[in-house]
TrEMBL record:
Domain of life: Bacteria
CDD domains hit by this protein: CAP_ED
Ranges where the Cyclic nucleotide-binding domain occurs: 24-144
Pfam families hit by this protein: cNMP_binding, Pyr_redox_2
GO MF entries: oxidoreductase activity
Keyword Secreted annotated: no
Organism: Phyllobacterium trifolii
Record keywords, A-Z: Flavoprotein, Oxidoreductase
Family matches, as InterPro entries: cNMP-bd_dom, cNMP-bd_dom_sf, FAD/NAD-bd_sf, FAD/NAD-binding_dom, Ferredoxin-NADP_redctase_2, RmlC-like_jellyroll
SUPFAM superfamilies: cAMP-binding domain-like, FAD/NAD(P)-binding domain
Name assigned to this protein: Thioredoxin reductase
Length: 565
């Protein structure tokens, strides 16, 4: 069998994983094959044998000793098509090997084959015990998912008007959770109407999600979408975790990585997608180790894989709505009624941007007013005038990113400038850009439009002068409101709702600056009162807090870590 074959055209683009065959579909050497074999068992299958199917969970890892395996993509019409053929000393799988989500593809024997099957628990043990093999496998699994996303394979079709709030909501959810999809813009694509007719749905039902082999979803909630796509995981209410991390921003993911890598049974609950507010940043340039910068989504994606590789569970699309902190283990209730029990909790729910009190504001949220500036949003406003409201680093990063594709960009700040609130490297770049204008002492006073936002008036509070522009996109990045409503009196908050920790919360026994007024409940990152609102500091807090968790767990009764009493 020759090196992995591909169906369809192969790009010469170096960023395309399918052009990097040696990394995306590597062949292990004979010595590595022997080591992998020690974690599984050999068996032979006949041509056509199904090894696993799309939609299954907890698929095993297969290494090919001889013969071949065909990887199948289920098309929009429900007919399986060969996506890739893998041969001798290659292995199956992609990122869902690290979690309990539903598979995106199917696999069958392309010819009679001799295989090594490594069951899920043994696979995770192998990844930890054999770091050189683990590095090759992890890189390959990541690249395969990137290939699916780049080529729109093994995913779903999203049909709807590209500027509509619900279309953007669903597209953001899929994108931020690295779920492959294709968008068909019903406002401009001539084939959209034919597809809507063929699907026997009303155009008023748009947007819709078309998952292969399943019923069409008409404008689902993100929770409903996650359930149908198999992104959510059922949590056994009798399980007791050592550590429950609430929030999967940089600080929460750092806690998960360090806790899981040190042998603590760890679960992460996240309401939308990994990354938190930082996940919406187009490029973070002052984070240690990335001299050319990295997007918030890429950083979060890597951290998520890292945590799962060490055994942490990640449950997305479920918000924490309340907590019972009256006894151990602590119990957190999710918005779908599920409960999660843990001996220690790390609150890393971060903060959200504040909303100004403007007439029509809610009407244009999501369809003209944005809280993220990624490639998806940049595509919506090419060669247009746009507004960024805010003077922090998030606003500066958004302005620089968007300035490459927009006609002109206006930064509106209530104060005299940017120097007090923004990193110097961003301030200097903004000052040098001929495509960016800074408007100090200025606020938006009127927004208007018909179907979508198309007119904005801003007012200079110093001079009282109004200016009205034909603008369809505002990027709102002002202030910070902590996500702490669900704590409901369990721990001490400051007057703004941020969590008090350490001496501020009256903690003297443990000495941890991250422990809250409730013993065994810790807070890290932007949600913590007095924290530095930067990615690096959040990651630092999330990693350092694990030491205090170890100390706390040693002091409490050693209840079973798997079953509640």
């Amino acid at each position: 069998m020759s090196q992995t074959e591909f169906s369809g055209d192969i790009s010469s683009d170096a960023s395309d994983p399918y052009a990097r065959r040696a990394q995306t579909f590597p062949r292990l050497d004979e010595e590595m094959v022997d080591r992998v074999s020690s974690f599984g068992f050999d068996f032979k299958v006949a041509k056509g044998t199904i090894l696993y199917s799309r939609g299954e969970r907890q698929t095993d890892f297969f290494l090919i000793k001889s013969g071949s395996i065909e990887i199948l993509d289920l098309g929009d019409d429900g007919v399986p098509r060969v996506l890739t053929v893998q041969g001798e000393r290659e292995f199956t799988g992609e990122l869902d090997l690290f979690n309990n989500r539903e598979n995106l593809v199917s696999a069958r024997a392309g010819e009679d084959a001799h295989l090594v099957r490594v069951e899920r628990s043994s696979f995770l043990r192998m990844m930890s015990a054999e770091p050189d093999i683990g590095e090759i496998i992890t890189r390959a699994l990541i690249l395969r998912r990137v290939g699916f996303i780049k080529h729109g394979q093994a995913g779903v079709v999203l049909i709807g008007p590209s500027h509509a709030a619900d279309t953007l909501r669903l597209q953001r959810f899929l994108t931020r959770n690295s779920y492959p999809h294709r968008l068909i813009d019903s406002d401009v694509d001539p084939h959209a109407k034919e597809m809507v007719t063929a699907l026997k749905i009303c155009s008023l039902s748009l947007p819709v999600i078309v998952p292969p082999g399943k019923a069409v979803l008409q404008n689902p909630t993100t929770g409903q979408l996650a359930d149908v796509l198999g992104l959510t995981e059922r949590i056994d209410p009798n399980d007791v975790y050592d550590v429950l991390v609430v929030g999967a921003g940089p600080s929460g993911l750092a806690s998960a990585v360090y806790a899981a890598s040190e042998g603590l049974k760890t679960i992460v609950i996240e309401g939308v997608a990994p990354g938190g507010q930082a996940g919406t940043s187009s490029k973070i340039e002052n984070y240690l180790g990335f001299p050319t910068g990295i997007s918030g989504q890429a950083l979060a994606g890597r951290a998520q894989v890292q945590a799962q590789k060490f055994g942490a569970r990640l449950a997305i699309s479920r918000m924490a709505v309340s907590i019972d902190c009256g006894e151990l283990p602590y119990r957190v209730v999710l918005d779908d009624g599920q409960t999660v029990s843990a001996r220690a909790i790390v609150v890393a729910t971060g903060a959200r941007y504040r909303k100004p009190e403007l007439l029509n504001y809610e009407r244009f949220e999501g369809q003209g007013i944005h809280y993220a500036a990624t490639a998806m949003e940049a595509q919506l406003c090419q060669e247009q005038e746009v507004i960024v409201v805010g003077g922090g680093n998030s606003a500066g990063q958004a302005a620089m990113f968007l300035s490459h594709s927009v006609k002109h960009l206006h930064i509106l700040v209530r104060g005299p400038g940017l120097k007090e609130t923004m990193s110097d490297y961003l301030v200097r770049r903004i000052e040098k850009s001929h495509k960016i204008s800074l408007h100090p002492y200025t606020e938006i006073s009127v927004i208007d439009g018909d179907r979508y936002l198309n007119k904005v008036t801003w007012t200079n509070r110093s001079t009282g002068v109004d200016e009205t522009r034909s603008i369809s996109n505002i990027f709102m990045m002002i202030g910070a409101a902590p996500n702490t409503e669900w704590l409901d009196g369990c721990i001490k908050l400051d007057k703004s709702g941020f969590i008090e920790t350490g001496i501020m919360a009256g903690v003297v026994s443990s000495g941890s600056p991250f422990e809250t007024s409730a013993s065994g409940i810790f807070a890290v990152g932007d949600v913590r009162a007095g924290s530095v609102k930067r990615v690096a500091s959040g990651v630092g807090e999330g990693s350092v807090v694990v030491q205090a968790i170890h100390q706390y767990l040693r002091q409490i009764p050693t209840a079973p870590a798997t079953k509640a009493g």
